[in-house]
Amino acid sequence: MKKIATTARQRAAQPKLPGVSPLDRGRGRSSLTPKRPSEDTSGLADVFPYYAGFAYDWARTLLASQGLPRTAVVLDPWNGSGTTTLAAQHEGLRSVGIDRNPVANIVARLRLNSFTDDPIMVLPDAISREIEPLEEDPLAAWFCPTSLVRIREWGCHLSTLPIDECNLAYVALFRTIRALTRSFEGSNPTWVKRAKEPSELISIERAKFDAMVLVEQEFLATRVLESAEAPSASAQIATALSGALPVANNSIDSVLTSPPYLTRIDYAVAYTRELALLGVDISRDRSLRAALMGTTLIRSGTASDLSLGSIADSLLADISGHSSKASSGYYRKQAIQYLADLTQGLSEITRVTKPGGFLHLVVQDSYYKDVHVRLANICVEESELRGWSLVNSEPYAVRRTLTSLNKAARNYKKSEVAETVVTLRKN
Ligand SMILES: C[S@@+](CC[C@H](N)C(=O)[O-])C[C@H]1O[C@@H](n2cnc3c(N)ncnc32)[C@H](O)[C@@H]1O
After folding, report:
1. Counting CB atoms within 10 angstroms of each CB, which of 98, 305, 384, 408 has the fewest?
2. Angle at 389 (CA atoms; ends 77, 310), nearest 5 degrees
């Protein structure tokens, strides 16, 4: 297959394509709290809307304030769109970012490449026209068969490129597919509807689709150039589980992370369309959904004899004893599974961190019905049980949460939930 890649600088000399508007280009300000403002653009936060990301300026300020040696290594075992790895890189600190969601890792790699002065774009002329439609294409939930052919031609071509040459084009495809399927989104940001009948399927001409992807690539290349900072430290991104980190013992100086919360956010469901583009059909293959922490699926074989601290134990007792339907069944099992993943992640963080190293956790409390899920306190207690000492715990009020978007959950009286930054030090 013929490959034609171009760089943003070469492309600038060519005429622009008319008539296609790129997605919203927010130009907001960042504040120094972990909560990422919705219009945030610092640290390329606007290149792709990753759910529950924290603010880049805040992460960078925190890492800068630690007085870490130049040889230090920073870890984020739930790295998402890569705010920690980017902030570390810009602070001249080596870093490792782990996430099980391949969509997150593509976005994280694009943001890390923001130091380049020549971002690589992929031109439509490079894309072969020889691909046959897939028989059971997961994107067929939104696109008609003829439109699917061109999307798959792009996907197939990108899968042949070296990893650092395809991130920008992949994120441009993510953005294009999001823009085209916007009418399938509801008020819950993590759920997307599927077409119920063929007339609802999106039909887009090949040339128009190509033009949209190109406009998105130009937007991303411009943003990358605007955000360029000299590279000063390496960052590695890996697709792996927080419960089995591919990281050596006692090798990490500082961990900055935000685990999934106990709010029934299913990260695989939230990125169904992007995963479909990558060939992962979460409606047929449940393995990715099941692997992610906080999933609403119950895996077989989750331990029911977990050894937990008193706060986590009393949460489980409150959930099991709640009078509402399925509390002692499904919801208890889901909470146990969540706590098993959280504590396994904390054990792994403990294994890989040097004595004297730091752990910064951004966590949000939530509610199960009227039961307060004190996640910050649970994280502190479980970390202390693994040999950490609390240094600081700073709460921030959170106004809009997924609970407040869920009508059934509003029936229970609750006080304001807090997001907390917990800092611990390994003994
Ligand atoms: C709250 S988000 C992190 C957001 C990140 N701080 C940012 O700025 O984009 C939590 C992340 O954990 C990932 N995750 C969930 N379960 C995981 C697991 N078992 N192993 C590794 N990553 C996991 C999700 O895919 C998601 O990206």
Report:
1. 305
2. 85
Residue with the larger pLDDT of the pair 45 and 315: 315
How far apart are the CA of 268 and the centre of ligand 1, in A?
10
Count of residues in the chain: 427
Provide the β-strand partners of residue 362: 421
pLDDT tens-digit map of 11-65: 555 444 333 323 222 333 335 778 777 777 888 888 998 877 789 999 999 999 9
Mutate to test the pocket of ligand 1, among 54, 293, 346 (most ligand atoms within 8 A of CB): 293
pLDDT, tens digit, for every residue of 362-411? 999 999 999 999 999 999 999 999 999 999 999 987 655 545 445 555 56
270 lines ligand 1 (CB under 6 A): no
E-assigned strands of 269-410?
Answer: 353-364, 366-368, 371-373, 388-397
The one-letter code for the residue type at 233 is A
Read off φ and ψ for residue 266, nearest 5 degrees. Answer: -105, 100
Q: Which of 235, 209, 194 is CA-nearest to residue 149?
A: 209
385: three-class secondary structure by DSSP: helix
Q: Is the CB of 99 under 6 A from ligand 1?
A: yes
| Best mutation site among 96, 247, 267, 339 for ligand 1 pocket (most ligand atoms within 8 Å of CB) | 267
Task: Assess whether the C-beta atom of 81 lies below 6 angstroms from ligand 1.
Answer: yes
Residue 66 CB coordination number (10 Å) = 17
Name the nearest CA neighbour of 342 among 375, 390, 304, 320: 375
* Nearest-CA residue for atom 27 of ligand 1: 80
The answer to whether 389 and 424 are in contact (CB under 8 A) is yes
